[in-house]
Amino acid sequence: MEKKLEQRKFAKEILSKMGSETQFEKSQKIANNLSDFLTHLKNTKFRSLKKLGIGAFCPIQNEVVWYLNMKNSAYEFCFPKTNKDKTMSFYSVTLPDFKDMNWGASIPEALMVEEKENLDITLTPGLLFAKNGERLGRGAGFYDRYLQNYSGITIGLAFEEQIVAEIATDKHDIKLDYIITDKCIYMCKGVNS
User: Could you tell me the pTM of the whole model?
Assistant: First the structure.
Protein backbone atom coordinates (compact mmCIF):
# COMPACT_ATOMS: atom_id res chain seq x y z
CA MET A 1 0.00 0.00 0.00
CA GLU A 2 2.86 2.38 0.79
CA LYS A 3 4.43 1.74 -2.63
CA LYS A 4 1.12 2.71 -4.30
CA LEU A 5 1.00 5.95 -2.29
CA GLU A 6 4.55 6.77 -3.39
CA GLN A 7 3.71 6.02 -7.01
CA ARG A 8 0.55 8.18 -6.87
CA LYS A 9 2.59 11.07 -5.47
CA PHE A 10 5.21 10.57 -8.20
CA ALA A 11 2.52 10.55 -10.93
CA LYS A 12 0.83 13.69 -9.64
CA GLU A 13 4.21 15.47 -9.63
CA ILE A 14 4.87 14.45 -13.24
CA LEU A 15 1.45 15.65 -14.36
CA SER A 16 1.61 18.93 -12.47
CA LYS A 17 5.03 19.77 -13.96
CA MET A 18 3.96 19.07 -17.54
CA GLY A 19 2.16 22.34 -18.14
CA SER A 20 -1.23 22.89 -19.72
CA GLU A 21 0.07 23.68 -23.23
CA THR A 22 2.15 20.48 -23.34
CA GLN A 23 -0.77 18.47 -21.95
CA PHE A 24 -3.05 19.88 -24.63
CA GLU A 25 -0.58 19.07 -27.45
CA LYS A 26 -0.07 15.55 -26.13
CA SER A 27 -3.82 15.10 -25.61
CA GLN A 28 -4.36 15.97 -29.29
CA LYS A 29 -1.90 13.26 -30.32
CA ILE A 30 -3.58 10.75 -28.00
CA ALA A 31 -7.01 11.74 -29.35
CA ASN A 32 -5.78 11.14 -32.90
CA ASN A 33 -4.24 7.78 -31.96
CA LEU A 34 -7.45 6.81 -30.18
CA SER A 35 -9.63 7.83 -33.12
CA ASP A 36 -7.49 5.81 -35.54
CA PHE A 37 -7.49 2.80 -33.21
CA LEU A 38 -11.27 2.91 -32.67
CA THR A 39 -11.71 3.02 -36.46
CA HIS A 40 -9.41 -0.01 -36.74
CA LEU A 41 -11.42 -1.91 -34.11
CA LYS A 42 -14.72 -0.92 -35.74
CA ASN A 43 -13.48 -2.23 -39.11
CA THR A 44 -12.05 -5.48 -37.75
CA LYS A 45 -13.38 -6.85 -34.46
CA PHE A 46 -16.71 -5.01 -34.52
CA ARG A 47 -17.61 -4.99 -38.24
CA SER A 48 -21.11 -6.30 -37.63
CA LEU A 49 -22.09 -3.54 -35.17
CA LYS A 50 -23.74 -0.34 -36.36
CA LYS A 51 -22.51 1.55 -33.28
CA LEU A 52 -19.85 0.72 -30.73
CA GLY A 53 -20.79 1.18 -27.08
CA ILE A 54 -17.85 2.91 -25.44
CA GLY A 55 -17.47 3.57 -21.74
CA ALA A 56 -15.67 6.90 -21.48
CA PHE A 57 -14.69 9.33 -18.73
CA CYS A 58 -14.71 13.05 -18.12
CA PRO A 59 -11.07 14.08 -17.63
CA ILE A 60 -10.17 15.41 -14.18
CA GLN A 61 -6.95 16.68 -12.58
CA ASN A 62 -4.53 16.69 -15.53
CA GLU A 63 -5.94 13.57 -17.22
CA VAL A 64 -5.80 13.10 -20.98
CA VAL A 65 -8.42 15.11 -22.85
CA TRP A 66 -9.23 12.17 -25.14
CA TYR A 67 -12.20 13.61 -27.04
CA LEU A 68 -10.44 16.36 -29.03
CA ASN A 69 -11.49 16.10 -32.68
CA MET A 70 -13.58 13.02 -31.86
CA LYS A 71 -16.43 12.34 -34.22
CA ASN A 72 -18.92 10.11 -32.48
CA SER A 73 -21.31 9.04 -35.25
CA ALA A 74 -20.12 5.42 -35.16
CA TYR A 75 -19.91 5.35 -31.37
CA GLU A 76 -22.23 5.66 -28.43
CA PHE A 77 -20.21 7.20 -25.62
CA CYS A 78 -21.43 6.38 -22.13
CA PHE A 79 -20.16 7.91 -18.92
CA PRO A 80 -19.77 6.57 -15.37
CA LYS A 81 -21.91 7.25 -12.37
CA THR A 82 -20.35 6.25 -9.08
CA ASN A 83 -22.77 4.55 -6.70
CA LYS A 84 -22.99 4.59 -2.90
CA ASP A 85 -21.92 0.93 -2.75
CA LYS A 86 -18.62 1.94 -4.44
CA THR A 87 -19.60 0.40 -7.77
CA MET A 88 -19.85 2.20 -11.07
CA SER A 89 -22.50 2.16 -13.80
CA PHE A 90 -22.30 3.64 -17.30
CA TYR A 91 -25.06 5.76 -18.85
CA SER A 92 -25.71 7.15 -22.27
CA VAL A 93 -26.08 10.90 -22.02
CA THR A 94 -27.74 13.88 -23.62
CA LEU A 95 -24.68 15.87 -24.56
CA PRO A 96 -24.71 18.20 -27.55
CA ASP A 97 -20.93 18.53 -27.64
CA PHE A 98 -17.93 16.99 -25.88
CA LYS A 99 -16.72 20.44 -24.82
CA ASP A 100 -19.77 20.56 -22.51
CA MET A 101 -18.18 17.79 -20.41
CA ASN A 102 -17.13 19.37 -17.14
CA TRP A 103 -18.85 17.39 -14.43
CA GLY A 104 -15.92 15.46 -12.95
CA ALA A 105 -15.71 11.77 -12.12
CA SER A 106 -19.46 11.02 -11.85
CA ILE A 107 -22.09 12.09 -14.36
CA PRO A 108 -24.93 14.31 -13.10
CA GLU A 109 -28.31 12.58 -13.06
CA ALA A 110 -29.83 15.35 -15.21
CA LEU A 111 -27.72 14.17 -18.18
CA MET A 112 -28.41 10.45 -17.82
CA VAL A 113 -30.56 8.85 -20.48
CA GLU A 114 -30.20 5.09 -20.07
CA GLU A 115 -27.95 2.71 -18.17
CA LYS A 116 -25.77 0.69 -20.52
CA GLU A 117 -24.42 -2.76 -19.83
CA ASN A 118 -22.17 -4.88 -22.03
CA LEU A 119 -20.13 -2.02 -23.43
CA ASP A 120 -17.81 -3.05 -26.27
CA ILE A 121 -14.90 -0.88 -25.15
CA THR A 122 -14.04 0.91 -21.92
CA LEU A 123 -11.63 3.86 -21.91
CA THR A 124 -9.83 3.87 -18.60
CA PRO A 125 -8.10 6.78 -16.85
CA GLY A 126 -5.20 6.37 -14.46
CA LEU A 127 -2.18 7.99 -12.88
CA LEU A 128 0.47 5.48 -14.01
CA PHE A 129 0.53 2.58 -16.46
CA ALA A 130 2.98 -0.22 -17.25
CA LYS A 131 3.44 -1.70 -20.74
CA ASN A 132 2.06 -5.03 -19.51
CA GLY A 133 -1.35 -3.43 -18.84
CA GLU A 134 -0.97 -2.68 -15.14
CA ARG A 135 -2.69 0.52 -14.08
CA LEU A 136 -2.55 2.69 -10.99
CA GLY A 137 -5.74 4.65 -10.45
CA ARG A 138 -6.58 7.28 -7.88
CA GLY A 139 -7.19 4.72 -5.14
CA ALA A 140 -10.96 4.36 -4.83
CA GLY A 141 -11.08 1.11 -6.86
CA PHE A 142 -14.14 1.98 -8.98
CA TYR A 143 -12.60 0.85 -12.28
CA ASP A 144 -11.09 -2.33 -10.80
CA ARG A 145 -14.49 -3.33 -9.39
CA TYR A 146 -16.23 -2.51 -12.67
CA LEU A 147 -13.68 -4.40 -14.78
CA GLN A 148 -13.73 -7.59 -12.64
CA ASN A 149 -16.59 -9.07 -14.67
CA TYR A 150 -16.13 -7.02 -17.82
CA SER A 151 -15.55 -8.93 -21.06
CA GLY A 152 -15.06 -6.08 -23.53
CA ILE A 153 -11.86 -4.35 -24.59
CA THR A 154 -10.10 -2.08 -22.09
CA ILE A 155 -8.01 0.86 -23.24
CA GLY A 156 -5.94 3.01 -20.91
CA LEU A 157 -5.22 6.58 -22.00
CA ALA A 158 -1.98 8.17 -20.83
CA PHE A 159 0.77 10.61 -21.59
CA GLU A 160 3.99 8.76 -22.40
CA GLU A 161 5.45 10.19 -19.17
CA GLN A 162 2.91 8.11 -17.24
CA ILE A 163 4.38 4.83 -18.54
CA VAL A 164 6.65 3.16 -15.98
CA ALA A 165 8.46 -0.17 -15.82
CA GLU A 166 6.45 -1.58 -12.92
CA ILE A 167 3.43 -0.72 -10.82
CA ALA A 168 2.66 -1.90 -7.32
CA THR A 169 -0.44 -4.05 -7.70
CA ASP A 170 -2.82 -6.07 -5.57
CA LYS A 171 -4.65 -9.25 -6.55
CA HIS A 172 -7.85 -7.27 -7.30
CA ASP A 173 -6.10 -4.92 -9.79
CA ILE A 174 -7.19 -5.54 -13.38
CA LYS A 175 -4.78 -5.36 -16.32
CA LEU A 176 -5.78 -3.47 -19.46
CA ASP A 177 -5.78 -4.77 -23.04
CA TYR A 178 -4.23 -1.66 -24.62
CA ILE A 179 -2.66 1.62 -23.56
CA ILE A 180 -2.72 4.56 -25.97
CA THR A 181 -0.22 7.38 -25.47
CA ASP A 182 0.96 10.36 -27.47
CA LYS A 183 3.81 8.19 -28.81
CA CYS A 184 2.28 4.77 -29.51
CA ILE A 185 -0.26 2.05 -28.72
CA TYR A 186 0.87 -0.66 -26.32
CA MET A 187 -0.71 -4.08 -26.75
CA CYS A 188 -0.98 -5.74 -23.34
CA LYS A 189 -2.16 -9.09 -21.94
CA GLY A 190 -1.32 -10.97 -25.15
CA VAL A 191 -4.39 -9.69 -27.03
CA ASN A 192 -4.52 -9.69 -30.81
CA SER A 193 -5.15 -6.37 -32.51
Answer: 0.91
Q: Is 54 helix (H, G, I), strand (E, B) or coil?
A: strand
Is residue 192 included in any domain, yes or no? no
By residue range, what is the domain housing residue 156?
2-187
Domain harbouring 168, CATH code: 3.40.50.10420
Q: Which residues contact 141 (CB under 8 A, 6 or more apart)?
A: 86, 172
- Whether 152 is in a domain gets the answer yes
Is residue 141 in a domain?
A: yes
How far apart (Å, rounded) are the C-alpha atoms in residues 108 and 110?
5
Percent of the chain with pLDDT over 70: 88
What pLDDT, on a 0 to 100 scale, did the predictor assign at position 5? 87
Determine how many CB atoms are found less than 10 A away from the CB of residue 112: 17
